[in-house]
Design a protein that fits this description.
The chain is of the alpha/beta class. Helices cover 31% and strands 19% of the residues. The protein contains eleven helices and 18 strands.
Length: 472
């Protein structure tokens, strides 16, 4: 089995590197399905990142966060349950991803379940760890919810681990002792971890099976996410921090957004909420579409979520390799882009990139486009220039009368965004006679005129109105 690609492997063409300060101090959480690995991960990470559910195999990708509970921060990796859905394609791929994380970790937390006791798969995995993995390991017996249950730890001595700690991931019991043990075993191995604050969050969003995970794989050039032809492979929203052309970013691959089916409603619904929450927390969204299928009704709904959240956005037409013609490519590309913008007219300001995650064609265009949007977002228009262009727009196409009154714009200025970062929607404050006189169609017209003169690709524009008594 080939698992040679590491976290620090580079995708040179896109100029993306993984941060060097994550190269050591990595702690992988491993074990069979449904023993509480994700609950332990969430406890150490300090927030609900992984999907926690009683259905085995809930975590399909491995998820990374930083734990700051000890003397020094360390990276924790939540892996998929080894042995989940035996015989399935997912099981093999999850196991491969888990073993990749295990090989690169400095320390392993082998999680078992005190309530079920030792099962054959625990014994099989413990033997595999001792035989093939050279890193130190801690046996974590989860679901020790009360002091009277600590006697259960003796039952796990047969697994042969030097360090054994009982915890309750849900209630936080024993976590302090576990972190202390991790500190001691990692002492001298962990380099200083630099906290990246205010790093732009780039969320890859889209319906299931449009290739979101494949896009991240292509960017990072590592087999990190589990890629499958079955829709809905990614259940978690997965964060990966990286550097591109000297700028730091956090890439976030979301679970595919769709309506939950009845059979697995709770787990799918939580993943959908996580994805929507990821859009809310993102600074810029990469909306992935399938170039073969064009814009579907689901795509429009997801684009609507991005628009409602007022996020910067780039449209990625994936699977370009499957649709591009042998001749007249530029003409076909123009028509495809035009059709995409027509169907997604409410985010027509978004740049469109045709690419292929499979062949990596045009992948290198993503980050320069992101940086271009950032540069436009950081630019502030002068008050004089803004007032001149708006007055010209009013003169060229005056607003209609409503109840014998017509909108008057006395003064306009650009105001700072509440978020104070270059991906925030530019906000323009207009002092008018009566905000109620601004029809939605005329609002769109004014926004279009601002965009025509200032550009602002990929950025939504917000108009704020403030009433002012007319001066005769």
């Amino acid at each position: 089995m080939k698992t040679g690609r590491s976290f620090s492997h580079l995708y040179r063409e896109a100029g993306v590197i993984s941060p060097g300060h994550f190269s050591t101090g990595s702690v992988a959480i491993v074990g069979r399905p449904n023993v509480g690995k994700s609950a332990l991960f969430n406890r150490l990470a300090g927030e609900r990142i992984s999907v926690v559910h009683s259905q085995p195999g809930t975590t399909r990708d491995f998820i990374v966060a930083i734990c700051y509970l000890g003397q020094f921060p360390f990276r924790i990796v939540d892996t998929g349950g080894i042995g989940a859905e035996r015989g399935s394609d997912f099981s093999a791929k999850t196991t491969t991803a888990s073993e990749t994380a295990m090989q690169e970790a400095e320390l392993l937390l082998f999680v078992t379940d005190a309530q079920t006791g030792i099962v054959p798969l625990d014994e099989e995995l413990s033997k595999r760890l001792r035989a093939t993995v050279g890193q130190p390991s801690i046996l974590v017996v989860n679901k020790i919810d009360h002091e009277r249950q600590e006697s259960m730890l003796a039952d796990f001595a047969s697994l042969g681990f030097e360090f054994c700690i009982g915890v309750s991931a849900i209630h936080g019991r024993g976590i302090a002792a576990l972190v202390l043990c991790i500190d001691r075993l990692l002492s001298g191995k962990t380099k200083q971890v630099t906290q990246w604050k205010n790093v732009p969050r780039v969320a890859i969003v889209g319906r299931p099976n449009v290739g979101k995970s494949s896009l991240i794989n292509a960017i990072l050039d590592e087999n990190r996410m589990i890629v499958s032809e079955v829709p809905g492979t990614t259940r978690d929203a997965v964060d990966i921090t990286c550097t591109c052309h000297g700028a730091h970013y956090t890439l976030c691959d979301t679970a595919g957004i769709r309506h939950p089916s009845k059979g697995r409603a709770s787990i799918e619904a939580f993943s959908i909420m996580r994805s929507i929450n990821t859009i809310e927390r993102a600074d810029i969204c990469l909306l992935a579409l399938d170039a073969q299928l064009g814009v579907t009704s689901q795509d429009k709904k997801i684009a609507g979520l991005v628009q409602k959240a007022s996020k910067a956005v780039i449209i990625l037409l994936n699977k370009w390799d499957l649709v591009k013609p042998q001749r007249w490519q530029q003409k076909f590309l123009h028509e495809l882009t035009k059709e995409t913008r027509r169907n997604l007219f409410f985010i027509s300001f978004a740049p469109v990139i045709t690419l292929s995650a499979k062949t990596r064609e045009h992948i290198q265009r993503i980050f320069p486009t992101i940086q271009k949007i950032s540069q436009h977002g950081a630019h502030r228009v002068g008050t004089g220039e803004l007032n001149r262009l708006l007055q010209e727009a009013l003169r060229r196409h005056p607003p209609v009368y409503r109840n014998n009154k017509r909108l008057k714009v006395y003064y306009s200025t650009q105001v700072r965004s509440e978020l104070h970062h270059p991906f925030s929607a530019p906000r323009f404050l207009l002092f008018v006679n009566d905000p109620r006189l601004l029809a939605s169609s005329y609002r769109s017209y004014l926004i279009g005129q601002i965009r025509k003169h200032l550009g602002l690709p990929g950025l939504p524009i917000e108009l704020l109105l403030r009433g002012k008594e007319a001066k005769d």
